[in-house]
Amino acid sequence: MRPYLAVVMDSFRSAFASRILWIAFLAIWLLLAALAPIGFQEVYTTRFRGEELSNGTQLKAMLARGLIDPQEEGTALGRLSAAMPGSLKKQLRTVARQNTPIQKWALADGLNRALDDESWYDQEAWQGTIRLTELKELDKLSEKQITEDQRRRRARLRIEAALPGGLIPRPSRSINLSYAGFAFPVDFPVTKKQFLVLVNQYVIPVMMDWLLGFILVFLGILVTASIIPEMLQPGSLHLLVSKPISRFGLLIAKYIGGCTFVLLCVCQLVVGLWAIAAWRLELWNPAILWCIPVAVFLFAVYFSVSLLAGLQWRSPILSIGVTCLFGGFVLVVGIFGGYFDQFVTGPEQISSMVKSADQLLVTTRGRQLRVFNDQANGWDDLFDKESVRRRDLLVRPVAISDDVFVSAKISGGQYNLYGNGTLEMLVLDRRADYKPIPLLPVPNGTRQFLVFGDQLLAMNNAGLLATPVSSVLQRIETERARLDDQGDDSESEEEAAEANSEVTDQDLQAVNQMEQLAWTQDLVGNLFRMQGGAVEEFQPILPEEIQLVEPLAATVAAGGKWLVLYSRGRLFWFGQPAPSSDQTTLELIGQLELPGSDAARTRLAASGQQVLVARADEPVRWLDLASGKLVGEIEVGSRDSVIDVSTLADKPVAENDVASSGRFAVLTSDGTLHLVERQGDALAARTLGLDDVHSIDFDSDSQRLLVAHDIDQVEIVAVASDGSLLSDRSIRATPAGWRKVDSWVMEPLRTLTPQTGELSETVAGLVSGRGSSAIERGFGDAEVRRYRIWRPVLSCGMFIVAIMSLSCFLFVRRDF
């Protein structure tokens, strides 16, 4: 063993003689010294930011209505609108007539000015607004007890209460970074827990990519490239081989010596960064030290190439050049692989599903609506490609009959839920090959359709609006009959012309009636529609005292008899009006305020009177609506977020039995599917046998679970009592277009090429203890990133074994 250790130490002496090494050491020490003064503190979330105003259309319509509607004078909305700066009020007064565009920063600046001057506040005016628990607690503080930060926080909550639904919710605390005691001018609207998660999952992988994966690896190659060429010098090689050591052992010892040298550099940097994170950022996470072996392993990949080039050409310059060329090739393959992930396979992933009879419709991450074609064994696109390129938001379709689905597409809705104009319902009829056909206007900002009894519900930030399903179906038949009659004889054309003249007369009469209305009322009506209020067909059905606030979620429970609604930490459940009643307003049966973060993204599922509430980064809560109490909560998965939930049995056992013990399917961000059920008084969770799952849904007619996995594959299964999956149908769509290139070219190429760029995902998974991350994108959605933890380790390990085997073969066989 001593001869091999002597060879390793000889590699050290050769490396330590390099000036580049000492320059790297000095750079590491200076970097650690520069980062040492960084710190943070947790402060109240007060200021409004432009990105919080994603519902800008709704917000400006609300403020404009507060200015021009006489009925709003003296209300919370009216008083707040009157406190806006003069230039902003001038723009707001023209919104109803011209839909004047207003920059988000201007709206945010107007709201921020109101934080400092609270002359707009009146206790009586705010009595009718939604007052969160935090606001109630701050209102109890006297002017002597309250701090300046608490006062500004209270002012912000009062503004949010006056503008329900107009702002994306933010946590009550934000992170403010500081350097040497000087606070940064910008706060990060995340909690301390979220901040630490972001450091683990994003900051440390970035450090791995650049500090360890690029700079140190490049410097390490510069320093160690001369080890093999110097060893091959006649005097050095003869001296080494004269010792009781094999050529194979000699080469491996030199390789280990080069890697051990890099280990010293990496240890200084990583241990120093870990100490700073623990001391200054309160991030006591020893898993950060995983960066050390991963970084050395990364260097070992490139050093193996440098070693092989040194054996072949005996030149340090050529070793560095060949290694750089290899690194460039790996980088190009990684860039193309990321391109295919983002623009080819990513947009193809199924985000939601709906089944009616034997037909399956899906939406994708790329905002495409598709129907499965059995004959071609593939998915048919229902939107043209140009339509998909726009940043539209696609509302999940729902079935209103065996042959008809309805959906909507919000133009520009990815960045503005209320889009760029009016919104129309899209009808997808089997008889028309599911070609999307606009039918009737729906409320602006509609994010979800639900079928509740004979009502088609449209939910947006402004409320819940409904129209009879029978009316929609009748209108579809009328529209089909009109289209069928277009090619008839002249008599039919005369009838159509006469009908058109009647419609024109009716339009003129309507115009005359509108001209008789007060001008102010007309503008107010425009503003109501702009902010998502009632339209001709859809009318509000929520009680007046119920106002919706982000985040929102809704589902149907008790076998279709109850509607469950979640709004900013509060759960409501409603029943339908009595058949003999003339009222259309839903009957409020009960409500419950939930503990925890009320700003977190939320998912709902109902089975009988049992409801599962899943909020991001919180335990799953099981509620019994019959008693109105929390049954219990359970952690599902390891540390990954819950991104979707679905019932597994929503039909009552008997005709009059709406209670059920309930079972639910829960999908976590790492793509694992779980079964959650009650076992006596306790809750239990277990893993179901499917991986890489993207979305789930439940078909109440067939009582089957729909599971989308592996990009665009679908399983229709029944879940047995023991948790086993009984497959009814498997959809294995044949890849087409660029998907074929990805399957036949990119995937084999990425498999054969060491995926050094993906080692940062290995670090993110090891440091955070998670297999994925889920970042909220607003409107209840989340962007999920699943880490490839072991794939890059396997590909890089196989590459090292292959290259080092080749190097050993050349060194043993060739006479140097």
Automatic annotation (TrEMBL):
Region (Disordered): 480-506
Alphabetic keyword roster: Membrane, Transmembrane, Transmembrane helix
InterPro entries (UniProt xref): Quino_amine_DH_bsu, WD40/YVTN_repeat-like_dom_sf
Keyword set includes Transmembrane: yes
Transmembrane portions of the chain: 20-40, 202-228, 248-276, 288-311, 317-340, 793-812
UniProt feature, compositional bias: Acidic residues: 486-497
GO CC terms, sorted: plasma membrane
SUPFAM superfamilies: YVTN repeat-like/Quinoprotein amine dehydrogenase (SSF50969)
GO molecular function, one term: ABC-type transporter activity
Source organism superkingdom: Bacteria
Entry annotated with the keyword Nucleotide-binding: no
Protein name: ABC-2 family transporter protein
Source organism (scientific name): Stieleria bergensis
